[in-house]
Amino acid sequence: MAPRRTFNASERNKARGFAPAHTPTASLAGTPDSPLRSAGRSLRSAALHLLSRRDYTTHELRSKLIDRGYDEAAIGPLLDDLTAARFLDDRRVAAAHVRTATGIKGRGRLRVARELSARGVAREIISDLMSGIEGTDEAAAIRKILARRKWPARPSLDDRRRMFQHLLRRGFPAGAIRRALGGDLDE
Questions:
Q1: DSSP labels for 141-172?
Q2: What are the pLDDT digits (tens) for 26-85?
Q3: Closest Cα to residue 181, out of 153, 171, 170?
């Protein structure tokens, strides 16, 4: 009896009449200097395709398009056009991020500001949005975290220090944490 031949996935697809997964034209279209780049997806359609999946800041979209091999000189005017058409709006993206980070993820104002800065949002927009977060909102978020962590009525000093560090990493101001934990941590 002859040994049975094994096929890998691409050989099996070829035998069944399907096109191979890797085509030479697909690999050529991915190179930045390829003439197929213009025949493939234009810069505008690539930007709109990215924006159809999620909102990006101007900085993030610029980076994505550069990473995909598009010309940097052509990206600037396109981003201006997309901003004028309101497809690209840093304030809207930042407001959605603030809403999600504070309301759903329970992060503090300092961490949210760092995240927005890392996403390339202008400082004026960040300070404007951060002024909308009140201290009562942060105090409620801290209480919610303490309740979720089953914070004891009389925690030890080590427990209080660990929770202080945890809340500090989540981006809450030290004064708000100290008030929520009740007193001095140097006892």
A1: HHHHHHHHTT--SS--HHHHHHHHHHHHHTT-
A2: 443 444 554 434 434 799 999 999 999 999 999 999 999 999 999 999 999 999 999 999
A3: 153
Residues 129-175 have pLDDT tens digits of: 998 877 667 788 888 888 888 887 788 888 888 889 999 998 898 88
SS3 per-residue string spanning 69-111: CCCHHHHHHHHHHHHHCCCCCHHHHHHHHHHHHHHHCCCCHHH
What is the widest separation between alpha-carbon atoms in the chain? 83
Cβ-in-10-Å burial (0-12, 13-18, 19+) of 63 comes to middle
- DSSP H or E segment with residue 112: helix 109-118
Unique residue bearing structure tokens 């942060």: 138
Amino acid at 57: T
3-state secondary structure of 30: coil
Which amino acid is present at 100? T
pTM of the prediction? 0.67
- The tally of CA atoms less than 13 A away on the side-chain side of residue 103 is 7
